[in-house]
Structure formats: structure tokens, C-alpha cells
Amino acid sequence: MLSKKNRILATNYKQRWAIRKLTVGVVSVLLGGTMLFISGTTVSADNFIPKNESVSKIEEKIPNNNITEEKSINTSSEVITKETKGTDTTIDKTTLNVSEIDQQNNVVSSETVPEKVQEITTMSDASVELDNNTPTSEVEKVQSQPTVFSYQPKESDLRKEEHGNNVVTYFVIVREVTIVKPDGKEEILPYESMDTLYYGIESENDDLPLINFKAIDVPPIPGAKSPVIPGISQTVNSFMEDDINEILDTSYVKSPVQRISGEVIPLPEEEKYDEPYYLYEPKYEEYEKKFAKGDIKLIGYDGLLIKEKYRYILDDDPKPIEGKEEKTITRTINVHLPNGEVQTTKQPVTLERKYTSVAGSDEKKYGPWTVGRWESFTAPEQEGYTAIPGTVDEAEVTSESLDAVVDIYYRADEPAIVEGKEEKIITRTINVHLPNGEVQTTKQPVTLERKYTSVAGSDEKKYGPWTVGRWERFTAPEQEGYTAIPGTVDEVEVTSESLNAVVDIYYRADEPAIVEGKEEKTITRTINVHLPNGEVQTTKQPVTLERKYTSVAGSDEKKYGSWTVGRWESFTAPEQEDYTAIPGTVDEAEVTSESLDAVVDIYYRADEPAIVEGKEEKTITRTINVHLPNGEVQTTKQPVTLEKKYTSVAGSDEKKYGPWTVGRWESFTAPEQEGYTAIPGTVDEVEVTSESLDAVVDIYYRADEPAIVEGKEEKTITRTINVHLPNGEVQTTKQPVTLERKYK
Predict the structure, then answer these.
(1) Topology at the third CATH level for domain 611-743
(2) Rounded Cα distance, 643 and 618, in Å
(3) Among the four 33, 270, 325, 365, which has the fewest Cβ within 10 Å?
């Protein structure tokens, strides 16, 4: 719809376009099928195929039509003729009248828009190529196109399913009106636009401004009647969701026969629509900020285009003929008297709808059907019996109503048996997806029934068995060069337990190119032999499995065969004098695609356990920090290493420990400093055991005449980690952490 290089709000145009195409389905039925009558002229609503049009420039931004101010409407047009095709042509300048029309088809307000026109180049796929010798009859053929209405499925329910009801979409709606002159030339009037919100919760739309476009008058041409372009005034709900006959302004009685076509489509990806679309971006951004703070989610910024085409009617064109159609809808009431007599009362209601048509044409424009009523009916009294039902209610009869039959029976005051039947329809739907993308659908409905009896006046019923039906065999249509999959759908018995079914048939090209290949994976068993001397001998037993596959060239889908099977061979541990391998052998094993990599460790146990001796050590340190008066810190460390011996059986992790030794931190005397007293003056000698922790002692100096001294205290706490290797070696790691605190 918009120029991709200038697109601000869309980050992925294809995704936005797919959403917009669905969204506009909600309102694509606009402008078809309703009869309008304006100022004595009858006009009709039709459909046309969207065209690729481009506008060179628009003098000013088009205002929201909810604002009453009217601005200049600029018009210009170009017709592609045999002489001018492929060249730029400057066309007529015309002054238009914008009017409002009341329900009696009177102009209640009108403003002449000043002549102020720019050049607008129109390139239309549906433009009529005319030369100077084109006869009038050919022009009339252009003006008398058949009426076709556009309808697309609604998308609002899709959005509600995806996001729930608590959502809102922002729409920009642009109206594009094209007029066809008697000589076949087409002229696109300046665009009108407006914006609206559309909430998932319908009640939220009730307070929104109307979808409102004013009626437009175009100047007369001698010998022809000017088309009347009606206004559009609808609530947001009716515009987005109502039937096509309810969308146009109800103040018009008959639809305009001068409308050649009309539809609502997504705003196309053409630069000429950029300006009205971008005009509302600031407002959209305001809504983004507003809804970002609330519970309602703003889920899109979409554009809709109302495209209409109108023609001038030549004075000698056939005049419309008016007529009416009738249909009678009858309710028949059968009163079954106790003596077997049946009294029948018929209640016919005749509805009618008016239409207009052009003389000599079978095409008719219909108005709405009238509405009637079936009167209420009371069954005659019968002594000893009760009528069921006793009365038949009054009912409204519309064009959608069907003939009805009401049977009234009499129940003896002693219960009578009533017979009836129930039905249900079970359908198999067969969708044939042809190679060209078309889908042909065949439905196979089967109606089953079961009879029942009940006592008159009771809801309890006794049912008989359901009948049985069959879905007939179906053969897919042949397509040259393709094979249907499946080619046939079998005949199937349908019972009361059957469910609705859907069968999809697709076509495969007859000679697909088959690509063969294979996949491999390697599964390894690793055997680690831990020799008594500490050496580790490693043996790897890799087994490579494979499976073949086939695929159609150009497709990522593959059909796989089964994986092959392999074996890990048995393994015997090498002999070591005076040692026994545990385990001595590793068994042969089957390797499948489900197997995982494996590791086997073999160790040696001495035949007569050998005793291994060793010792463990740990160092516990007292750190003495002497904080001299000049700020220097003299540190003395007093490490004490304790040890304990152990014995263990070779090859075993179990150890027998002796007691820890005991050490001592020696006493320490602080150095003298003239004019200062050390606090403390000495650090006592202390016994160090395995339970002792690293310690920090801070010595400070106090001036003999008190002075303020600032400093800090520190203490280090160390964790010692001893790693006892299998060969008896002990690796020690120390993790000291120094803490400090400041003082005055």
C-alpha cells in the first residue's frame, strides 16, 4: 500500500499486507446491493476489480470528514486513447458542489468548491481506449456494465481468537470516486479520508464518531444526467460487521443505478495513497501511547479503500422499470381430533419486495422484503381431552421464514402414546487440492434417524435404534502428469457413532527426482586401564552406524530407513605381576541407534595388600602488624606447620590417621618508640593445635601526650585445601582472606 522506502510503522510489509487483506474482509461488502434515490435519480451499487492508479500530487492534506470545515476539491483526469496512450495529457478542470441531502432527497446545504485544480495522471488497467470515431453505442456499453458485488469473509473473529476481545485496531479509510463521462473518459475525484478505532468489544464502539462521508454533486453535461454520489454515514459496528444492505445511509430509498461498481479493499501499495495514509500517523502514535498504559491492546494500523465508479446517463438511455415480486409463506395448523378427523387451518402471509430494472434487461435491483405475521391460534376444546399444544403463538414472518406445519394432537385425560423421530446429519467433506492451487470440495451428507415413543405431555422418550447409512466411494479427478494421493476414498458405513470427517487429496508429480543418501553416527566405548604404577592405558572402541534415506529433489523432507547394528568387541585387561585386574574382562556388547557413549575403568588390586605411609600438613599463621607512629606498618608472621601421619592399603582411598602434632607461636615484644607507648606492648606465647585458626594481632602506639591517630585493623583468615593424590603426594592450596576495619 505504501512506498516501502518511506514506510515508518511497518517492519515487515508482507506480514502487514496479509493481515490487512484479512482485516478488510470485515467491510469488503460495502456499497453493494442497496437501492438509493437522490433528487429524483435512481442509482445502483456495483463492484469492479481494483486498478493500478497513481496520483502525481495532491495540493493539501485531506481532512477527517468528521470535521465540518469543507476544503477545495481538485479534479483532473486522463483517458487513454489510441492517440494519447503512453503520453501525459492535461485534462479538464471542473468545479464540484459538495452537498448534504435529507431523507426527502432535498439538498439541505451546499457549497461550491472553487476551481483550483492540479494535474493528476490516472493510469487504469480498466481504462477504455477510444478514438475519435468510436460510436456512441460503444460508449453506452461501457456505461452499462453489469452489476457485481464484492464480498470478502470477515476477519474480526480471527483477530479475537488470536488476541481475545480486549483489543482495538486503528483504521484509515480513504474514499476514491471515479466518474465516467458519456464519451468514456474517466475522472478520479480528489480523495476523502477519515480515521476510526475499531474495538474487539462492540460496546466500546458505541461512543465513537460515525464513519461519515458527505454526498457529492458533479456538474451536468448537456444531453446527459449527472450521477449522484451519495453520502455514507454508519456506526463503526455496522460499517465493519453488518450485511451489505445495511451499510449505506438509510436516508436513501433506492440504490443509485448510475453506480457502475463499488467495493472496499485494503489500501493498495501505491504512492498516490501515501499522503492520506501518512496524514494520520501522528494521531496513531498518540493512540499507541494511550493504549500502552491501559488494558486494551492496540494491534494494528490498517488502511481501507472505498472504491466507487459512477456514470452519466444519456437522455436517450432506457428508463428504469419498476415492479414487485411476491412470495407467500404459509403456516398450516393441523388439528387432529380424538375421532381421527383432521381440521386444517392455513395462515398464508404474502410478502413483497419492489425492484427496478432497465427495459430489455433481466437484471433487477431489489428493495427489502416486507414483513408479515401469523396470527395466534387456539385449538377447539374436546371433552375428556387436552389439546397439545393448546395454542399456537403469533409469529413474525420475514423473507427468511419457511413454510411451517404445526400439528395439534389431543391427549386423553388418561395418557396417550405419541410417536416421533429424531434425525442427525453426519458429513464427510473431500477436498481435492488440484496442482494449480484450486480446491474442489465434495460434501457427502448422510442423514440417520431413530424413532421414539413417549406419553403425551411427558418429556421422557423411549428410543429405537439409529438407522445406518453409507458414504459413497469417491475417485479423484485425473490430472495429466500428476498422481492423486489418495487416488480413491473408500465407501464407508456411517453409524450413529460416526463423526464428521474431512479427507484432503493432494497431487504428486508423476516422476519426482529421488535423491538417496545416508546418515552416520559413531558411538564409542572407552576402556581406561589404571596400571599399578599410576599409568593409564586407554583403548577406544568406536562403532559407526548408518541409515539410508530418500527424498524428492528440492524438498527437505526425508524418508529414513532403519539404523544398522554394530558390536563392541570383548576386551581383556593386561596381566600385572602380583596384581589382579578388576574387572578382568569387558564383555562384547551390541551397539544400536539407542546406545550411548560408554566409559569402563579397570583398576588393579595387589594380591597381598601393600601398606602405604604418608603424612598430611597444615600451616597456621599468626600475623603481628606493628603500626608505627609515622604510619609505617611492620608485619611479623609466625607460621606453625602441623602434621599427622597416616597409613593406607595400596589402591584404597581409606586412610588411618595418627594425631596432629602441636606447635607454638613465640611471644613478641613491640619495638620501643620514643614518646609513645605500644598497645599491647607484648604478644604472649600461644600453643598451636589442629583446632587453631589463623590469627592477626595489631599493635598501635599511643602518644604519651594523647594525640588523635587514625588507622585501620586487619585480620587474615585462611582456608587450606590439601589434595591427597593416589601416589601419596599432597598438594596444598591456601586461600587467605584479609578483613580490615578503620579506627580513630
Answers:
(1) Immunoglobulin-like (2.60.40)
(2) 6
(3) 325
